[in-house]
């Protein structure tokens, strides 16, 4: 494919991502299957262009005078992000072959405007998101916006029940990769996202020596208070990402009950448990919390990884950032409170409750924690500093997390910790 034909293909793919609800990855994969003439270099270049545009969509749309179509966004990217000159862009947009038609007067005018991407931070994300980040971070909101628009590395969690970190490092190096130890999690290894490391075929993955899991997602498990021999309920277990980390914190000893309202998601936990060589009691919950009555007042730790916007993972799924609405966030906030209320019943007197999201929004984090605290005087905030002694954290991690915490609440984010955005609030049920 010519460079111009790649741009035309990327524009069409961006349009189908905009018009549907499918993840960008799935749309790109479908396009590759339907366009077999595209070679691996074409597919890589097209995917890179699509992700570059998705990450900067708000800015590019503003730069192009509010247009949101794939063609305009790519013209904007060439000018604003790549720094291409008008002549260079006209060379690509000349209507020849499978390339895009020539530039319009309006498009030429936008290119001549010579704006700076950094000046467009205000419009990088939906307005209600920017307002939320400003309310939480004050002057530092720009850092959060910039970091959220970046690329995420690939983090692995070594399964200490099956392997040592040195063994996994050696296997990864043998496969030509360059793992770096993570700063906060004592079991984390970080790989560059580019070129995308393909770790799933490795023996270590197949044999459960490691899982793919963002460092912040590991850290919230280490802070949960799960200990060997405990009864731990993973209340919103989903596909089981945190479940496996919780079993590891329990050193495989005790009872782990993984619940979810989605049978399909719970099914996905089974092969992961088998690979990691651990067991959990999987329970399908009713939306009113039914199905775990036998555990009322029994759990040492209830871990609520609540449904949320997923905004903490926008580096990985940038298309979600402009699909989110303020109404959806309000719905999620109400759901988070309802689920927390249900989960409280399972905590034994003196036991722990951990509220977790992978969101960066105050509306789903501090606001939900504050509303929960106002309604549940019997749940006392536990300072993060008291939980940060976990041996699964690095020494630097213990210090850093203690310093970052605000009482019983902690935020991790691409800007603050170089991780996905996560939030945790810890409570203890009055004895
Ligand atoms: C953030 S995801 C959990 C991700 C999972 N813990 C992981 O690490 O892979 C939230 C989960 O909450 C579940 N959920 C939604 N409503 C729920 C409810 N009323 N009670 C319990 N879980 C619920 C969803 O099915 C979803 O799997």
From TrEMBL:
Which sites bind S-adenosyl-L-methionine? 260, 305
Q: Which residues form the SAM-dependent MTase RsmB/NOP-type domain?
A: 144-430
Q: What's a BP term from Gene Ontology annotated to this protein?
A: RNA methylation
The residues responsible for catalysis, as annotated, are 358 (nucleophile)
Do the record's keywords include S-adenosyl-L-methionine?
Answer: yes
Q: What keywords appear on the UniProt entry?
A: Methyltransferase, RNA-binding, S-adenosyl-L-methionine, Transferase
Annotated CDD domains:
AdoMet_MTases (cd02440)
GO molecular-function term, one example from the UniProt record: RNA methyltransferase activity
InterPro entries the record matches: MeTrfase_RsmB-F_NOP2_cat, MeTrfase_RsmB-F_NOP2_dom, RCMT, RsmB-like_ferredoxin, SAM-dependent_MTases_sf
Give the highest taxon in the source lineage: Bacteria
Q: Note one Pfam family from the annotation.
A: RsmF-B_ferredox
- Family, as annotated: Belongs to the class I-like SAM-binding methyltransferase superfamily. RsmB/NOP family.
Name-wise, this protein is SAM-dependent MTase RsmB/NOP-type domain-containing protein
Which species is this UniProt entry from? Answer: Brevundimonas naejangsanensis
């Amino acid at each position: 494919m010519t460079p111009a034909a790649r741009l035309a293909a990327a524009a069409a793919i961006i349009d189908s991502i905009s018009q549907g609800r499918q993840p960008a990855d799935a749309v790109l994969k479908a396009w590759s299957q339907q366009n077999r003439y595209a070679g691996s270099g074409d597919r890589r270049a097209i995917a890179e262009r699509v992700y570059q545009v998705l990450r900067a969509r708000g800015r590019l749309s503003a730069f192009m005078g509010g247009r949101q179509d794939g063609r305009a966004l790519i013209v904007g990217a060439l000018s604003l992000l790549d720094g291409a000159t008008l002549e260079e862009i006209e060379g690509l947009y000349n209507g020849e072959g499978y390339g895009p038609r020539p530039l319009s007067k309006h498009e030429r005018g936008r290119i001549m405007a010579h704006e700076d991407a950094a000046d467009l931070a205000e419009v990088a994300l939906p307005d209600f998101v920017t307002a939320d980040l400003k309310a939480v971070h004050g002057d530092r909101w720009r850092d959060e916006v910039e970091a959220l628009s970046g690329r995420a590395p690939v983090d692995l969690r070594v399964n200490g029940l099956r392997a040592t970190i040195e063994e996994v490092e050696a296997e990864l190096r043998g496969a030509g990769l360059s793992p770096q130890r993570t700063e906060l999690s004592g079991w984390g290894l970080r790989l560059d996202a580019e070129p995308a490391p393909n770790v799933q075929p490795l023996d270590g993955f197949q044999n459960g020596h490691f899982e793919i899991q963002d460092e912040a997602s590991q850290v919230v498990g280490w802070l949960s208070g799960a200990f060997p021999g405990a009864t731990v309920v993973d209340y919103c277990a989903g596909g089981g990402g945190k479940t496996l980390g919780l079993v590891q914190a329990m050193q495989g000893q005790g009872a782990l009950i993984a619940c979810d309202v989605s049978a399909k998601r719970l099914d996905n936990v089974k092969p992961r448990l088998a690979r990691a060589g651990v067991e959990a009691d999987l329970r399908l919950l009713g939306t009113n919390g039914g199905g775990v009555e036998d555990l009322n007042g029994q759990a040492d730790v209830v871990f609520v990884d609540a449904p949320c916007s997923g905004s903490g993972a926008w580096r990985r799924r940038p298309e979600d950032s402009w699909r989110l609405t303020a109404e959806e966030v309000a719905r999620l906030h109400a759901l988070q409170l309802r689920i927390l209320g249900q989960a409280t019943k399972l905590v034994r007197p003196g036991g722990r409750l951990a509220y977790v999201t992978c969101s960066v929004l105050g509306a789903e984090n501090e606001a939900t924690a504050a509303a929960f605290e106002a309604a549940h005087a019997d749940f006392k905030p536990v300072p993060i500093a008291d939980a940060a002694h976990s041996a699964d954290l690095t020494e630097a991690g213990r210090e850093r997390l203690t310093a970052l915490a605000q009482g019983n609440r902690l935020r991790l984010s691409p800007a603050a910790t170089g991780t996905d955005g996560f939030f945790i609030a810890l409570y203890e049920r009055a004895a």
